[in-house]
Write a structure and sequence with these properties.
The protein is about 30% helix and about 15% strand. The chain has about 500 residues and is an alpha/beta fold. It has a domain at about 25-120 and about 135-385: Alkaline Phosphatase, subunit A, CATH 3.40.720. Strands 1, 2, 4, 5, 6, 7, 8, 9 and 10 form a nine-stranded mixed β-sheet that branches. β12 (about 405-410) and β13 (about 415-420) form a beta hairpin. The longest helix is centred in the middle third of the chain and has 24 residues, at about 260-285. The termini are far apart.
Length: about 500
């Protein structure tokens, strides 16, 4: 055989072997977790038939491309209405009621009740929360390590403990919100430096030929708004913003930077660029066809500053109304259907079993979890009724700016329970009433009772903490608390509720 022919044959064999290796190689998994990002907080409409299910003016072309190339989840839920407990749900595949990590608090003395002074005369004695991930809970890195994965976490942790103790070989430590509020003009919300560390990690693993899990937990879009000065100036010139400045009797020069809608919009666009940098690096490294990318928010939110935005969902962060627990979610990957919309309920604690299946493991081997793998649905499998009607649980037995309450969602039915007024049953049909305006509990009492019983039975099974009636309750003291009006406005109601100003 001539040398030239031999080289040609060898080249073909090499190409074939590389292609075969790529086909059999375990996929990489990247989770981009965005902080305090409303269901309607991006230019991607979460429902193509709802004009207010997206954020007008904001430009995020990378996210829009992701939604076109992958799958959009119309009914994605966070595990909790606040960042810390929802992050624990992601890590463990468990509901907040099961983890016991239901709110971010300091270290409590009482292992069950929160008896701090500000609650001593309120109607209920609320509960404390765990302050770190349970030692016996299996986290994402711990589940993926036996399958050959190396894991890294960059950005906001906010779960107590240390990421290294949960299996992350590279991380930023036990970070909270503070690092993201440093007001670094060239690195707003640290999104650029977080991304650089993420790119370096991917480069190292790609060079070593090691499958990896990378979680990039951005400080954006949390309050303490920051963006690049040039991006802010771009949005300040927009006619919508110019009209807004006139209405509030400010100018682009006199408005407070952190109260300026242009700063929030700029933060979103800058963040989109950092998402793009991760995708570009994945392509540069030649692992584009073997990498899953998930973009999701940690909890719901309510972006009220934007003058033209009508809110499609009720409530916001800290409440288990839809506005507090519905989140945007987009996924791309090797076998994820393109330009697809998944309309059934999914939740944060589905991510762990999904990642395990992507990694070649068996999600059924995970014990004491509440989530299920979504991998099959992303390949195009159709969900059956047992999945459609499964129970999702949300538990927030705390006051903070709310009142202790819980919820269960099954299909498009939802029951809320406010422990302060347990005599007001609440049931909603989310198909007909996305904004939770009409309480149907008296119309369909059997539906309410069935779901309520299922929720309380589950809470009993997992040992969820439940608040108790306060014998020292002082109604007059309660009325003087600064959150009282909000609690009454967003608490339980019979019949129909009045719409908030930004819902009309």
């Amino acid at each position: 055989m001539k040398k030239s022919m031999m080289l040609a044959v060898l080249a073909i064999l090499c190409i074939c072997s590389v292609a075969a290796a790529q086909e059999t190689a375990k996929p990489n998994i990247v989770l981009l977790l965005i902080d305090d990002w409303a269901w309607n907080g991006s230019p991607v409409p979460m429902d193509d038939q709802m004009a207010n299910s997206k954020m007008p003016v904001l430009q995020m072309p990378v996210l829009e491309r992701l939604a076109h190339e992958g799958m959009k989840f119309r009914n994605a839920y966070s595990g909790a209405p606040q960042c810390s407990p929802s992050r624990v749900c992601i890590q463990t595949g468990q509901s907040a009621a099961r983890t016991g990590f239901t709110v971010y608090l300091g270290s409590p003395k009482d292992p069950y009740y929160d008896t701090r002074r500000q609650y001593q005369k309120l109607p209920l004695v609320p509960n404390v929360s765990d302050t770190s991930i349970d030692h016996d809970a299996v986290t994402i890195p711990e589940a993926l390590k036996p399958l050959g994965y190396v894991s890294a976490h960059f950005g906001k942790w906010h779960m107590g403990g240390d990421p290294g103790e949960e299996g992350y070989v590279a991380h930023d430590g036990n970070t909270n919100n503070n690092p993201g509020n440093q007001q670094i003009e060239t690195d707003p919300k640290l999104m650029f430096s977080i991304t650089e560390r993420s790119l370096q990690f991917m480069q190292e693993q790609a060079k070593a030929g090691t499958p990896f899990y990378l979680q990039v937990s951005h400080y954006a879009m949390h309050e303490g708004r920051e963006c690049l000065p040039a991006t802010r100036r771009k949005y300040q010139k927009h006619p919508e913003l110019q009209a807004y400045y006139k209405r509030v009797k400010k100018t682009a020069e006199t408005i407070n930077r952190r109260q300026d809608p242009a700063t929030w919009l700029g933060m979103g666009e800058d963040l989109d660029g950092r998402i793009g940098a991760v995708l570009d690096e994945i392509k540069t490294l030649g692992i584009e066809d073997n990498t899953y990318v998930v973009v999701v928010s940690d909890n719901g939110y309510r972006h009220k500053f934007y003058p033209r935005l009508s809110q499609p969902l009720h409530g916001h962060k800290w409440w288990v109304w839809q506005g507090g627990i519905r989140v945007p979610m987009v996924v791309i990957g090797p076998d994820v259907k393109a330009s697809a919309v998944f309309g059934e309920n999914v939740v944060h604690y589905d991510l762990l079993p999904t990642f395990v299946e992507w990694a070649g493991g068996d999600p059924a081997s995970l014990t004491d979890i509440d989530g299920v793998s979504l991998a099959g649905f992303m390949r195009g499998e159709q969900p059956v009724d047992t999945f459609r009607n499964r129970y999702l649980y949300f538990h927030y037995p705390h006051y903070r700016t709310t009142m202790p309450h819980s919820a269960i969602v099954s299909g498009r039915r939802k029951v809320l329970h406010f422990y302060e007024r347990s005599n007001v049953p609440m049931l909603f049909d989310l198909d007909a009433d996305e904004g939770e305006v009409e309480n149907l509990a008296t119309k369909y009492p059997e539906d309410h009772q069935r779901l309520f019983n299922a929720m309380m039975h589950y809470f009993d099974q997992v040992g969820a903490r439940i608040p108790k009636v306060n014998p020292d309750y002082d109604p007059e003291f309660y009325k003087q608390t600064k959150e009282y009006a909000q609690r009454m406005a967003w608490g339980p109601f019979e019949g129909r509720r009045e719409l908030d100003d930004d819902e009309k």
